[in-house]
Amino acid sequence: MGGGYREGEAEGRLFAVLLCAEDPEYVKKVHGGYFKVFVSLLGEEGETWHVFHASRGELPPAEDVDAYDGFVISGSCSDAHGDDQWICDLLSLLEALVSKKKQLLGVCFGHQILSRALGGKTGRAKRGWDIGVTCIHPSHSTIKQFSSLDIPSHLPIIECHRDEVWELPPNAQVMAQSEKTSIEIFKYGNHVMGIQGHPEYTKDILMHLIGRLLQLNLIQVRCYYSILWK
Question: Domain named Glutamine amidotransferase: which ranges (predicted)?
Fold first, then answer.
């Protein structure tokens, strides 16, 4: 399936978000859906953005891929180590995009599925859920490489995950870690980056998501209070 929703049609660089989950009603009502959240964070004037609902089996047609400069792979309720058909199809696409040296950014599930596509290993987080604002620590090489940006040694980021990258893909580099997660950010070459946290989330999106997890009994009330006091 192809097409997807289009945000702007100006001539310039072309990007797409590969959505790996359905928009909660709250996010649609308040923020216009995750696609608009990502475009608000990453989009720049003159760019065109499309969205493909990867979890529904909707991916850019092979003949259209070369037209794109890059792709963002979103979070998901699914496991990146799973073998659902849409996940296998997404892996095949990502492998092709990596070989074409397209710019790729994976967030949470996207971070994990990118790692898997590159030959890394993912699975359940060994220290359980990480929910709330987590302090991550950029590596010394990352701080040195981006010295012009004056990156601090501690960075807060919103997290909401119970899976993680277990083993880094060959030739990839860890850019940041935290007390709970050894691979918070990784890069592969100069065109692929995975981020375990959610730079696109706002506080209200996080609190809504926590409420949904409580309703589904995926986390317990004591976990909720530990988040508040984190």
Answer: 65-202
User: Is the distance from CB of 58 to CB of 93 less than 8 angstroms?
Assistant: no
> Does the annotation mark 108 as catalytic?
yes
198 is catalytic: yes
The reply to whether the predicted model has a pTM over 0.70 is: yes
Q: Find the angle CA(119)-CA(1)-CA(52) to the nearest 5 degrees.
A: 65
Give the distance from CA 180 to its chain's centroid: 18
Question: Is 223 a catalytic site residue?
Answer: no
Split the chain (230 residues) into runs of 10 and give each run's mean pLDDT.
47 93 94 97 96 98 95 96 97 97 98 98 90 89 78 86 95 94 96 96 90 72 47
Gap between the Cα atoms of 134 and 200, Å rounded? 14
Work out whether strand 14-19 and strand 70-73 pair parallel, antiparallel, or are unpaired. Answer: parallel
Dist. CA 144–CA 116, nearest whole Å: 28
